[in-house]
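Narrative summary of target 7.
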Amino acid sequence: MPSDVRSLRVEGVVLRHSDWGEADRMLLLYTRERGKLRAVAKGARKLRSRKAGHLEPFTRVALMLARGRDIWIVTQAETVEAYQPLRENLLKLGQAAFVLELVDRFGFEDGEDAGLYQLLTATLRRVSEEEDAFLAVRYFEMRILDLFGFRPQLFECVRCGEEIKPQNQFFSAMQGGVLCPNCGPQDPTARPASIEALRFLRHIQRSNYPESKRARVPESIRNEMELLLQYYLTYHLERKLNSPDFLRTIRQTTREERPD
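Modeled conformation, tokenized:
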């Protein structure tokens, strides 16, 4: 933290918070100006705290920070966007939690990345407002891979360079994309990938969001697309993601509660 900077105004999204001391709250934020940033909200756990309502996870907030001894301290907080529907729908909440987890894992502390911040806020808005946010989350995954240099090769075999033909293929996280039916069996880490799933993933990769939304992905293909991308993301992050298990539990519960 630069010693000559006494105060800082930022806009950010609260990724998560935890208890700190007797009445304070430690925040992990992803900010437009400073990337990932930690700050303490003094007295935020007190019942009469004016800041507490602005500092909940999934909230986009404008903050004034003051430099403490070794961490920023929140002196003012104002909600910019609450994404209220996320708090009223468990599936949307799970999808948003997945988005925040990826930003947390990929983002850098004190590393400004306006592109990632813009992607984060746009995705939270899409998940919040759209009835079906499946494509919004897949689009987010594709774009975050692009931003951090992990764009998967989906149009040619990454091993032999052959153009992908309209038949089932393989996908290798280690090699960075699709393997043809001849090369796939030679990579023990590669996973089968149907041509239908690859067709939709390629559409998302080469399209802007309005164009991506036009896709009508069958239920039978959605799970495969989701698992392929999670496999690829997990490989590059080198650790398991927590929120996909939460999402699967939500979906299973929803199916069990659905009337016959």
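The beta strands are 7-20, 24-31, 35-41, 60-67, 72-81, 169-172, 177-179, 191-193.
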